[in-house]
Design goal:
The structure is a homodimer. By secondary structure, the first copy, chain A, is mostly helical. Chain A is built from 11 helices and no strands. The structure holds a DNA duplex.
DNA sequence: GTCTATAAAGGGATAGAC
DNA sequence: GTCTATCCCTTTATAGAC
C-alpha cells in the first residue's frame, strides 16, 4: 500500500492485454512482455505465478471492464426502435474503443476451450444477451430472438473486425471506419425490419 | 512424378491447415505437425524450406480453394433479390463447410500484417467484393455499397464465428447451427431492406 | 524421401543477491 | 520489488546416413 510500485501489476496487465490481443497466448513470450513493460522477465514472476495466470487475469480484466455496460444498457424506457438505436450506438462506441476486447473474444472462441467459453457466456454475456433477445422480440417479433440477437451483434462487430483490411477493399472511404457512420448504417438497415 | 510419395507435400498441407486454423502460427510446432502427419520433424524440411513457408502455402491453398466461387457466384441472371438469396445460401454453405478458411482469415486480420492483408484483399476478395458492391447497390440503392457489402458478409460470417459459444447463450436451439436456417434468417432480414 | 542425431536459439520458470 | 544468473525444456533448423 506504500508507494508507486503497487501499480506495477496493473501496468503489466495494461501493457500485456494488447500484446495478447494482437498475437495470442502462444505468440507472446514472457521476455517480450518484460521488454514492453521495461522490466526483467524474472520480475513478472513476482507479480504472477506463471504465464497462464497472467493471461487469465488480462482476459478477466478486459471483460470486467465492460460488465457495467452489459448490465445497464437497457434502463432506458422508450420505444423498442429507440432502444435499439441506443444499444447500437453504445455497442459501436464500446467495440470501437476497445479493439482488444473483441480480439481476445475472437481468440477465445477459436481456441474452443469449452469450460472457458461456458464461463464467458455465463458471467459476461448471459445478462446482456437475454436483454438483447427481449429487445429483438419486441422490435422484430417475426424473427427468432436468438438468431436476431446474433445478427445484430454480427452486423456491428464485423464492421470493426475487418477494419485492418477494409481500406484495401473496393469502395472504401475513410468515413467507413467511423464509429458513428457504422452505427447509423446498421440502424438504418435494422429499422426497415421493425415496421 | 513416380509414385505415391509425390502426395506427401499435399498431405502435409491438408493436415496442417486445421492445426494452424485452430491454434495459430505460434501455437503449432513443427514437431506437432510431424506427429500429425506421422513423419519426423526433419522430413518436413525436405518439403518446405521453413515453418513460415509452410504456413504461407497452407494459407494460399486454403484461399485458392474458393477462388472459383469468388469469381463465378454472380453469373445467374435474375432479380437482385433472387441473386442476393442465392449468394447468401452459397456463402453460408462455403463458410459452414470450411471453418478453417474463416479462422485463418480472422487470424490474418488480427495479426495485422499490411502487406499480407493487401495481398489477400487484391488476390482473393477484390473481384467478389466488387460484385457484392454492385449487387448491394441494385437491391439496396439507398445504402452505401461498401458498408452494405460488409454488413451482408458480417451478418453471415458472425453466425458461424460464434458457433463454439452459441450453445451456451440464452435462447439457443440446435437448429441455430444449421447452415440453411441461418441462410433463411439472414435473407428474411435483408429482403425487408429491398422493397 | 525419410530417418537419427544434434546444433543453436528461445521459451518458461527458479534461486538468490540487493 | 527488481535485478542477475542460470536451469531445463522446447523449438527451429541443419548434417549426414540410409
Amino acid at each position: 500500500m506504500s508507494s508507486e510500485k503497487q501499480n506495477t501489476k496493473k501496468e503489466i496487465l495494461a501493457i500485456t492485454i494488447p500484446l495478447f490481443a494482437k498475437s495470442g497466448y502462444a505468440g507472446v513470450s514472457m521476455r517480450q512482455i518484460a521488454k514492453a513493460v521495461d522490466l526483467q522477465a524474472a520480475t513478472l514472476y513476482y507479480h504472477f505465478p506463471d504465464k497462464h495466470t497472467l493471461y487469465i487475469e488480462a482476459l478477466t480484466q478486459t471483460f470486467n471492464k465492460h460488465a457495467d455496460f452489459m448490465k445497464e444498457s437497457f434502463t432506458l424506457q422508450a420505444s423498442s426502435e429507440q432502444r435499439l438505436h441506443q444499444v447500437i450506438q453504445q455497442l459501436c462506441t464500446l467495440i470501437n474503443g476497445d479493439t482488444d476486447f473483441s480480439k481476445l473474444m475472437q481468440r477465445e472462441i477459436m481456441g474452443g476451450d469449452k469450460k472457458r467459453l461456458q464461463f464467458l457466456a455465463d458471467h459476461v454475456f448471459a445478462g446482456f444477451f437475454r436483454d438483447m433477445n427481449e429487445l429483438c422480440l419486441s422490435f422484430a417479433p417475426d424473427q427468432d430472438p436468438h438468431l436476431m440477437t446474433v445478427s445484430v451483434l454480427g452486423l456491428i462487430a464485423y464492421h470493426f473486425q475487418i477494419t485492418p483490411i477494409r481500406s484495401f477493399l473496393p469502395g472504401f472511404q475513410a468515413s467507413h471506419n467511423d464509429s458513428e457512420v457504422i452505427a447509423n448504417h446498421v440502424f438504418s438497415l435494422l429499422k426497415t425490419v421493425t415496421k
